[in-house]
Amino acid sequence: MKDKLTTNADAGQVSPPDAYTLLPAVLLDDEGYPTKEWLQYIKSYKPDKSLPLSTFVEMVLVGGWYMSNWGFKLHKKYKGKRKLELHTGGWSGNEETIAAIKSNMWLTHFQMRYVMWRTGGHYYFELSVG
Q1: How far is 31 from 21, CA to CA, in rounded Å?
Q2: 125 and 84 in contact (C-beta within 8 Å)?
């Protein structure tokens, strides 16, 4: 038995939404906290052609990180990898974003890997680049 989404897609009525289409319009509220929609988006994000991982990190994640000018550092490519440092600054909103990232296997085990945490809210990731 086919599920509803497959049936609709097969009939040409509806295609599954892509990652870019699902991106919420507002990432942070007026006080700098992540919106519920943004946190849910991070938890369910799966890289695709509409929003590849590199674009997600460089253009979207940085916009959903409070104090990104201080706490978001994406290093240049070196030996096929880029290093991403996320520093929460003790901001609970950034800690919520980290929890959402850590709950998504696409952001911790595949092209982007969670490699280290240091006391004080310092999180380190590696991104594989082609």
Answers
A1: 25
A2: yes
Q: At what angle do helices 92-102 and 36-44 cross, to 10 degrees?
A: 30
Task: Count Cβ atoms below 10 Å from residue 93 Cβ, excluding itself.
Answer: 22
Q: How far apart are CA 8 and CA 44, in angstroms?
A: 21
* Domain limits, the chain: 32-128
Residue type at 99 in one-letter notation:
A
Please give the full DSSP string across 50-82, using - where no structure is assigned.
TB-HHHIIIIIGGGGSTTHHHHEEEPPPBTTEE
DSSP helix/strand/coil, 130: coil
Pairing state between β 122-128 and 72-74:
unpaired
Q: Is the pTM of this model over 0.85?
A: no
Cβ atoms of 124 and 83 within 8 Å: the answer is: yes
Q: For 90-128, how does the pLDDT look when each residue is reduced to its tens digit (9 = 90+)? A: 999 999 999 999 999 999 998 899 999 999 899 999 998
